[in-house]
Amino acid sequence: MINIAIFISGRGSNFLALLKNIETGVLKNCRIAVVFSNNEHAKGLEYATKAGIDTIVIPSKNRHDRAEYDRQIITALADYNIDLICLAGYMRLVTEELINIYKNRIINIHPALLPSFTGLHAQKQAIDYGVKISGCTVHFVDSGMDTGAVILQKTVPVYDNDTEESLSARILEQEHIAYTEAVALYADGRLKISNRKVIVTENKWVDLKY
Ligand code: GRF
């Protein structure tokens, strides 16, 4: 059983998708131990509370001390014996210190085919650029913005009449599938990182301590 911490800043639909898939047995050997948010108004916190999952909120408004802020997170998570951190709409960069403590154990989902369209409004960036295919990427987190090693990607078509909203909705459906698949691979010990490539092994190759 792996203990997951989910980091959110807002809506929390990726968190909810993971939770549902755990509850229905689609995603095995996983437990969401805690949901962390930098925003006390994040809608996703309500789902956590309803599901009886612990929540931690450390408001980040007017906090410019990223190192100190993340140290508070590290302290708050210490009791939870966390194996994996899933960033799910978490709108802050994480510091080297947090990344090193959870080395190769932090993953993120981004609504574009990385390395294209990093950062905010990735779906709008895709539309404005005029790409015909977009999608989502689950990747390990490094200290850059959306730059870590890619675990898996899902594609969707981009139509001429797409708006940011319509494309976002099409991608979001795939995000929920992709995140569950990536967490399952992680929980099964099937992700092997070699340089910056993630190799999905046929069989379990590691006992989750990378
Ligand atoms: C998703 O599109 C995710 O890819 C991006 O932020 C959005 C979060 O949505 N990083 P939700 O909070 O999971 O509903």
Strand order of the largest sheet: 3-2-1-4-5-6-7
**Rg, Cα atoms, Å:** 17 Å
The percent range for strand residues is: 15-25%
For the largest beta-sheet, the strand count, sense and barrel status come to: 7 strands, mixed
Shape field:
globular
Number of strands: 9
Secondary structure class reads alpha/beta
- Low-confidence segments, ≥5 residues, pLDDT <50? none
Arithmetic mean pLDDT: 95
Q: Count up the helices.
A: 6
Residues in helix, % = 25-40%
Order of helices and strands: EHEHEHEHEHEEHEE
Give a list of the ligands.
5-O-phosphono-beta-D-ribofuranosylamine
How far apart the termini lie comes to 16 Å
Question: Short summary of the structure?
Answer:
The chain has helices spanning 13-23, 44-50, 66-77, 96-101, 122-129, 164-187, and strands at 2-8, 30-37, 54-57, 84-87, 106-110, 133-140, 150-157, 191-194, 197-200. By secondary structure, the protein is of the alpha/beta class.
Overview of the molecule:
The chain is of the alpha/beta class and 210 residues long. Helices cover 32% and strands 25% of the residues. It contains 6 helices and 9 strands; from the N terminus they run βαβαβαβαβαββαββ. The chain has helices at residues 13-23, 44-50, 66-77, 96-101, 122-129, 164-187, and strands at residues 2-8, 30-37, 54-57, 84-87, 106-110, 133-140, 150-157, 191-194, 197-200. The strands form 2 sheets. Strands 3-2-1-4-5-6-7 form a 7-stranded mixed β-sheet, with helices on both faces. Strands 8-9 form a two-stranded antiparallel ribbon. α1 (13-23) crosses α6 (164-187). The longest helix is centred in the last third of the chain and has 24 residues, at 164-187. 37% of the residues are buried. The model has no long low-confidence stretch (mean pLDDT 95). 5-O-phosphono-beta-D-ribofuranosylamine binds at residues 8, 10-14, 88-89, 109-111, 172, 175.
